[in-house]
């Protein structure tokens, strides 16, 4: 779990160019971390690459926060 | 008609990042050519190019991080990074980084490219083929298309005037400056950020131009000798990359805010060859008419010109055709005008070439120095009767200069810039 959380946070920091301490579990990609719709697609692609999973479009739409991502990946990897 | 002057300059070139750094190396006779480092070109017929020197930003090197955050760089092709850097330099030089709200509405952008995001398009095609559509970046389209230098500049500064981009192969930079100047003349804007950007030194770009038999292939072991316009040994162009951007401004607007005025854009001419996709028409009439139209618009006679920055790509077909057209244009004035090709130093920047070369004309007006034609030792047949500034720069008062750009498709553009003396 913590391993997944660390990797997710690292990806978010890299892709959105935000400070690590802003990437809390409840942070929303769009509302809190300055992402736009293209950024969220890119993030989902990065999660798929890192964890070797496929995130279908309907599931991807529900991944709005760091915690959403960690939960989905934990349940599907 | 409203008059248009140049109040800001920006450049990323194979000699250096920055206008002054590039200019000082250019007039010293330095070459930007070397072995291609961006991909393995070892089995290509042309293995050399003029690449932008990358580094930490010191000593004229280009450091992309100085101009764009790393996360933003990943979302655009390199031509956009070069274009953004040159635009930021020009806007800073003009002192136009933070105009007022009303001024933002009257400031536009017209920065084009000849090819655009070729490298990223090529890489994405491979990715699509190997791993499927879900691996294509959501930024791919907006990071590859040509008008996205204009788009990104406008977004960064909030410029809300005309947002446009010319795509006319190797005439793009000249068309961009000429058309942007016209937008100011016609009162569509007071300030335009205009020019061209290009970054096509990639496998598919070099393969395509090589197959078109346009590139130099005889000088792979002596890259600095490869670009030799009008010299007997010329055998094709050397690819370059980079960006040239100017800030154009309505004269009274510039005077009112006390801006530094580099020169006035007085002439702009265009023509089509109507002949062939890659080869210029043998009679040179297209280039001739383009230059003639630019002079007419400027209200100048051939003898009023002091300097011509030629298209001069170093191809055996193109060099004598342009030379003949210039000679025909100048007539008796041929003996008093100097012409050089700065592509001998920086290679051919395709869609950025016309803008970079217009800036060199402006620097000649500003400094009284004309950049040389490197590697011109023995003139090719039919290239006699004009001073081609061989090998070393010349000191010469330049009041008016003409810059030629000719592109695939038979598209020709000529710009005339003149010193601004306060009249």
Describe the protein:
- The complex is a heterodimer of chains A (77) and B (423).
- Chain A is mostly helical and 77 residues long.
- Chain A is built from 4 helices and no strands.
- In chain A, helix 1 crosses helix 4.
- With 423 residues, chain B is of the alpha/beta class.
- In chain B, the strands form 3 sheets. Chain B has a 10-stranded mixed β-sheet, with helices on both faces. Chain B has a two-stranded antiparallel sheet with strand order 2-3. Chain B has a two-stranded antiparallel ribbon with strand order 11-12.
- The longest helix of chain B is centred in the first third of the chain and has 17 residues, at 78-94.
- At the A-B interface, helix 1 and helix 2 of A face helix 2 of B.
Quick rundown:
The complex is a heterodimer of chains A (77) and B (423). Chain A is 61% helix and 0% strand.
Q: pLDDT average of chain B, as an integer?
A: 98
Q: Count the DSSP helices of chain B.
A: 13
- Supply the helix-strand structural class of chain B: alpha/beta
Shape call of chain B? globular
The H-and-E topology of chain A, N to C, reads as: HHHH
How is the quaternary structure best described?
Answer: heterodimer
**Based on CA inertia axes, which overall geometry of chain A fits?**
globular
Number of distinct beta strands of chain B: 14
Distance, first to last CA of chain B: 15 Å
Into which percent range does the helicity of residues of chain B fall? 25-40%
Helix content estimate of chain A: 55-70%
- Class inferred from helices and paired strands of chain A: mainly alpha
Average residue-wise pLDDT of chain A: 95
The greatest interface here is: A-B, 12 and 11 residues
